[in-house]
């Protein structure tokens, strides 16, 4: 049973691409954020800004901030660096005195194409990407193998709490099947 005493996170949503209006993004983002915070044992009184845009806009942001002039599904900018120094370590918790966690940009085109290609509901994929981005805001990343394993495991557990299947389960099953097939 969810803790109803937890405050709601502040999700400051800016919709640049009107196609997002057909998706309950604010509800999805609030639910994904709250579930992430609950799973990590944090309160939910945090602030997140989300830009709901298209591939053209996110490609510019990706080029400006990551040097990659191409669209991506989601980007995040933590307000403070929280990542763990040791590979696979849990990042330091955010300071409740500074509730602003950072900014997220999410691209409609790429999200819709990925959901369709994977055969999953669009809203489930969006929820996954918001969980992923919130974890980035909290200092989790996937640059090193153990960090990636930690983040992926957390995403699966958080999404399970939301009733959404683990998006990485299919990949793990394929890897296990190929390893088992090679071992024979």
Task: Give a summary of the structure in a few sentences.
By secondary structure, the chain is α/β, with parallel strands linked by helices. The protein contains six helices and four strands, in the order E-H-E-H-E-E-H-H-H-H.
Radius of gyration: 17 Å
Mean of the pLDDT scores?
Answer: 89
CATH hierarchy: architecture: 3-Layer(aba) Sandwich
Backbone structural class:
alpha/beta
Major sheet attributes: 4 strands, mixed
How many individual helices? Answer: 6
**Backbone shape:** globular
**Element-level helix/strand string:** EHEHEEHHHH
Tell me the total number of β-strands: 4
Provide the CATH top-level class.
Alpha Beta
Question: Could you please say which CATH topology applies here?
Answer: Collagenase (Catalytic Domain)
Give the strand line-up of the largest sheet.
1-2-4-3
Strand content: 5-15%
- Helix % is 40-55%
Low-confidence stretches are 1-6
Number of domains: 1
Annotated CATH homologous superfamily: Metalloproteases ("zincins"), catalytic domain
Distance between the amino and carboxyl termini: 45 Å
